[in-house]
Structure of ATP-binding protein:
Amino acid sequence: MLFDPRPKVRREDLYDFDEELKKFTKALDEPMVLVSGLRRTGKTSLILTGLNTSGVSYIYFDLREGARSYADLYKLISRGFTEFTRRWSGLRDHFLRVLSRLRGVSIAGVEVSFSWSSRERPLLIELLDAVNDFAERINRRIVVVFDEMQSIRGAMGTVLQSALAHSYDFNKSVTLILAGSEMGVLYSILQNPESPLYGRAYVEVRTRKLSYSEAIDFLTKGFAEINVHVSRNEIEEAVRELDGIIGWLTYYGYLRYRSIGGVEQVVREAVALAKKELESFLATRVSSRYRAMLKLLAQGVKEWSELKKELERLEKKEISDRVIHDILKELRRHSIVNENNEFTDPIYRRASLEL
């Protein structure tokens, strides 16, 4: 169903993206694939659909919630391994046999868990080496997905990136897929000379916003599929409000399907969610200054000189050009605004007005 709010896994449920899907599946024999794109533009759906239609064996790590400790990180990793053993029952015994040789690994049925202590937990390098060993034993390539890779930050992020660099160099039966929506952060992981992954070649597949006509077509086909009549005017209103962000359009279609609400309801819920995401972003920064900048941008102030003038008026003191530069750079790195200081998602613009 086009309006299923969960990530798509079947080709018939994935709207268009033929070129992106073809490029993705063709790259599955490469050492590393980068799947990038704005939030809610279908990265996870593209990945899972491509993997399932290709019939490859894969381990999927969902890193969206991030990790504040190694306990958090190893929980996310154990969840991915457990899902793999459940999904690929025919390979389970071989895989668990390889994993069981590592320190700090516990296996109960199909459940895989790890010790969290620094002395006992398996190294991430060891886990990826074990995946490669398993792949060679069964003579099959294994794809390992790290979704929202940039969510693992700081020292843990460096450890993870070092493990991936090691796997890239030495694990010839493993393909790494890195996905992320904060594209500037993701690119810095791969292109910063100080990053462990610097210098490794990769194939990039980018998801995109739907054009106006594509968004209209998506909603029209989606409503026809579920036999729900919605006027052309309402569909056009939804596209104007939600732009070509397929995640928001899907959510709108799903709520309409469930008779929960229309465009206004979706916008309210979407803004509330976007506001929560922005608050999380602001939590580790000089919050008041970033809030002011986001509000100014949301009000349509885009010129550098005007932004500086308004921030100085609000703070009642002089602000250096460097400060303005750093704030805008950070907003771009996290794909909140583009190079023209415009919001990449209209919902984020609305949410910024409420900060």
